[in-house]
Amino acid sequence: MKQTGNRDPKTGKFLRGNQAAVKHCGHAFLVTGKVPSVRGARALKKELTKIRRELENSIPKLDVKKSLLVNQVVRAEGFCSLFEAYCKRAGIIEPNSAKKKILSFQPGFQTYLSLLNLQRNAIHSLGLDEKKSEEILTPFEIIEKEKGGKK
């Protein structure tokens, strides 16, 4: 079998040890909903189950709409976790673009940002951010609160 470049000429697949073959598996997770066989798959699956359970327990009346939003948050978290692990290993800047003196992010970065926004909006729609926003104080309010407590 003749090997040309970074790919097998018969199958077109990347050859073993090729950096371009390293993938973050996030898109496979979004499509199938299953954690791919990557290092830490059991820990990730356990963490996603924990997140799902905590979200479902924190919602008083879980109906179909809220259940769909919980599923969206969990799937988005799965993609984001896989993409973050990949970026720790491969870097956030695409290596081939740096060689061409054009800096661009890894291919899944735009999806990553979109899913972070989706999570934020879904959590807001579930009503889980209301209590926390009331408890946050500005630095000036903290100083006033401390001055009031010392008197």
Descriptive report:
With 151 residues, this protein is mainly alpha-helical. The protein has one domain (19-150). It is 62% helix and 0% strand. The protein is built from seven helices and no strands. It has helices at residues 26-32, 41-58, 64-90, 95-99, 109-126, 130-135, 139-150. Helix 1 packs antiparallel against helix 3 (64-90), helix 2 (41-58) packs antiparallel against helix 3 and helix 3 (64-90) runs antiparallel to helix 5 (109-126). The protein is extended and about 70 Å long. The N and C termini lie far apart (83 Å). The mean pLDDT is 77.
Question: What labels describe this entry?
Answer:
mainly alpha; 62% helix; extended; 151 residues
The profile of the biggest β sheet is: none
Query: In terms of per-residue confidence, which ranges show pLDDT below 50 for 5 or more consecutive residues?
Result: none
- Helix/strand-derived category reads mainly alpha
Mean pLDDT: 77
| Strand count | 0
Q: Give the overall shape, derived from the CA principal axes.
A: extended
- The radius of gyration is 22 Å
End-to-end CA span: 83 Å
Q: Give the SSE order as H and E letters.
A: HHHHHHH
Proportion in β-strands = under 5%
Number of helices: 7
Tally of domains? 1
Helix content: 55-70%
